[in-house]
Here is the input.
Amino acid sequence: MNLMRYRNLYFGISLFFLIPGLLSLLFFGLRPAIDFTGGSSLELSFVGLGENTELAQDEEFQTTLAANYEYSVLQSAGENRVLIKGKEIDNQAKDELVLTLEKNYGAIEVLQFETIGPTLGSELLTKTLVALLIVASVITIYVWRQFDELKYGVCAILAMLHDSLILLGVFSLLGYFFAVEVDLLFVTALLTTMSFSVHDTIVVYDRIRELKRKNPRIAFADIANAAVVETLSRSINNSMTIIIMLLSLVVLGGESIRLFAVALLVGAVTGTYSSTFTAVPLLLLFEKKK
Here is the structure.
């Protein structure tokens, strides 16, 4: 079974998912959460409400809240609980907002209140970009040293970049159409995606190296194809356990972690695909140019 003869098809599939996301990033960008822009986050429990009420979806509640606070995010955080994010406010303004809401919705318990200034938000964004750059550089050097050829490190990083751009593009589109914001949990998912992608890629590359040592006279394309065939079922089986767990979190998990689970799910799917159908074809392309 010669899977690598369809490598142009694999590149086409990658472009099909990459191009919309890249265009969205170019024209719309990402919607940064208060972690990066600064603002306040307030989690409230409406203990005065007897039955479970989806306040985050209630138009009357949204109108009341908007009349008293300039918020950007309103989501359910559990039974009769909401998470509100918006412009920066102090404790006094927070207390006044809670008192106003209590007049219409009964007793309210403040579960969490935190404020991030614009300076700290900008600093977090800078540190995030530096962390991504460091991770990419270290992985390139590590793979290069392990396989004694720069092309392995470069192809692994290109495959990792492929996964990262698809994830960024998906959340750019979600931000434009559904006002989804990226926060520190998204950064965690992005870094996890990068590591997941490289982990599977190294497994395939290691098998290529092993077969190359045992069969030095066989063409490199045949060796790469054999390595892919031998490791494909292992990669799929390993990834499916992760994907099923993440699907469960997306469907059954709480609102506060749903987007985090979605980001990990996208990363797991793209990482599984790219380790075989992007990283190896790129390696063959480098070998052909050489």
Q: What stands out?
A: The two ends are 25 Å apart (CA to CA). Residues 220-252 form the longest helix (33 residues). The first strand starts at residue 39 and ends at 45.
